[in-house]
Structures are given as structure tokens and as C-alpha cells.
Amino acid sequence: MIIALAGGVGGARLANGLARILPESELAVIVNTGDDFRHLGLHVSPDPDTVMYTLSGLNDTERGWGLAGETFACMEAVGRLGGESWFALGDRDLATHIERTRRLEAGETLSSITADFCARLGIRQLIVPMSDDPVQTRLRTPEGELAFQDYFVRRRCEPKVTGVEFAGATAASPSPILVSLMRSERLSGIVICPSNPFLSIEPILAVPGVRDWLSRRTVPCVAVSPLIGGKAVKGPAAKMMAELGLQTTPQAIATQYEGLIDGLVIDRADAAQAYPPCHVTDTLMRNVAGQEFLAHEVLRYLEQLRASPAS
Ligand code: GDP
Predict the structure, then answer these.
(1) In 3-state terms, what secondary structure has residue 3?
(2) Per-residue pLDDT for 311 more than 70?
(3) Nearby residues of 79 by Cβ (< 8 Å), 6 or more positions away
(4) Pick from 130, 144, 253: nearest CA to 198
(5) pLDDT band with cut points at 50, 70 and 90 for residue 64
(6) CATH number at residue 163
(7) Would you state the torsion angle of the CA atoms of residues 62, 295, 200, 70, taken in this order, to the nearest 10 degrees?
(8) Sign of CA dihedral 76, 77, 78, 79
């Protein structure tokens, strides 16, 4: 079994590649919930939904988020009434949030609701929210602290980031499925997807027990760099790295995961900065074929590390 740690878009793309080539019972995707927030009275869970929509094939591949064929009539109507329309929730997507919120309020956990939604959408792999407890990613900026969606959507990642916090993390527990996966004897490798290390992977590592488990792993773990040619494919990863005084290099990504990975997968565009242990390949996932290609590369690299751990 392979465990993949993922955020939204970059995470979902590689997770989908892995899902398409591994037997369905052999993949568990642990997803960041630090971006979850309450909006219009609803519990919105952006990263688990991106992974769920992608693995079910219902995602909008052009826009990169949400459902294909989506309409936004409800949001327009909310805006007409003077309500909050800055965070676009599609008409069909709203059904996910309405039903999730109803079930949370009836006492179910986020992880059991997610598992049930996945089953109903025909997904056979495990999609596991990192925790059932609230963890909120917050950005320190010169304007003060910003909640994740205020920074990411409302302010379009413009404010300079001086630090990141995960409110609630120290009191959170890993979700029950994650706890059993961390103990599983079936585990053969761990993949850190090319998600934003600071906003998507770090919150997962901040859940008590997860970082420790990774640092004491008995199977190889590889990360895929979200940078190509020193730039993020999408989103603020490179901008944030510069603001935090880091270089936008494979080395800086590897340092971020120090002690947690056995190797880093980097793009050919960054090959000049490759250093061992590192695997150089094409990491841009333009389409499903690109996702499958990278998933094969990652699995081969894990296999190679298993065969000769020191290489
Ligand atoms: P978010 O929560 O939607 O921002 O999701 P993630 O953190 O999972 O994804 C954002 C990261 O994915 C960005 O840093 C991108 O550079 C990276 N990313 C997106 N697509 C690709 C891709 O095709 N290849 C690689 N290497 N990185 C990607």
C-alpha cells in the first residue's frame, strides 16, 4: 500500500495518477484540512473536495478546481442580495457542502462523511482528511494575521507572508483511518505530492504524531517538488519561499522535508541544481497521461530506494 500526502490541485493530480495505476485497495490519500472554513453557514473543505472530484473524474480540468459543467447561479443570487460572493461555490458543489454540513451537525465525523461521499461517487481508494478536529492555517503578514481563504482568495496571495500557523493543530488528533494507516504492515512507500510545502503539507505534518511517524518510517518516502524551473506551476509557493528568505530550488524543498524523505523528484528544468538523492524527470502533469507518467516515475523511484536504501 502507498500513502500519499496531498493538498488540492498539485496533490490531486499526482494522487489521480497513482489511483489509475495502483490496484484500488493499495492507495490512501491523506489530505490537508487546514484550508477548511465555514462560509455562508456551510463547512467547506477545499482540498479533500479537489481530491475527491479529481479521483471521481467529476473535476473541471480547465479551471483546476470544482466540478465540470458547473454553474454559479446561486452565488450570483447571493451577491444580488448583498451577501458574500467573494468565494465562488458552484451550484453542484454547494450540494457537497450542504450535505457535509448537515451530517457534521448530526454528529458524524469529517472522515466518515468523506469516506461515504467517495463510495457514493465510485472512488475505491481511501481519501482521508488528516484530522476530524479543526486545524486552521493562518498567515502572518505585515497587515496582521490572515485566515487562509482571506489570504488565498480574497487577497489573491498578495500580502507578504512572514510566517504560517496552524491554529488548533496541537490539540488535534490524526483521523482514525490515518491512525490505522500509520500502523499498517501493508505499507510499502510514502509519497509527498507536489503540493505547497508550507500551506498544504506542513499542516498535515503539524497534526500530532504525523511528523514523528514519518521521521521513524520503515518504508521509503519520496517528495515531488512543486517547483518547475524555480517557479510554482500555480499558486504562491515560490513567492512565499522568497518572502520567507528561501531560495526557490530543489535543495530548499528538500530542506523543508529534512529527515522525512529519502529522495526528491525534481523536474528536468531544475536538473542543474540536482544533488543526490534526487530523481530527475518530467514533472508537469498537463493531463491524465502526465499524471500517470509521474506516478510511474515516483513508484519506480520508491522501488529503487527500497532495493538499495543508500542510493
Ligand atoms: P492547492 O491547495 O490547490 O494550492 O493545492 P496544492 O498545494 O496541492 O497544489 C499547489 C502546488 O501544486 C503548487 O505549488 C504547484 O506548483 C504544484 N503543482 C500543480 N500542478 C503541478 C504539476 O503538474 N507538477 C508539479 N511538479 N507541481 C504542480
Answers:
(1) strand
(2) no
(3) 85
(4) 253
(5) confident
(6) 3.40.50.10680
(7) 20
(8) positive
| 237 pocket-lining for ligand 1 (C-beta < 6 Å) | yes
pLDDT, one tens digit per residue, over 248-266 is 999 999 999 999 999 999 9
Q: What's the total number of domains in the chain? A: 1
Distance CA 130, CA 249 (A): 28
Ligand 1 center to residue 108 CA distance, Å? 30
Domain of residue 298: give its range. 2-307
Quote the pLDDT of residue 98. 98
Cell numbers representing residue 242 in the block: 522568497
Least confidently predicted of 31-40, 61-70, 241-250: 61-70
| For the CA of 12, the nearest atom of ligand 1 | 8
CA 81–ligand 1 middle distance (angstroms): 35
φ, ψ of residue 308 to 5 degrees: the values are -140, 85
Grid cell locating 56: 471521481
Distance CA 20, CA 31 (A): 18
Task: Say if residues 188 and 14 touch (Cβ distance below 8 Å).
Answer: no
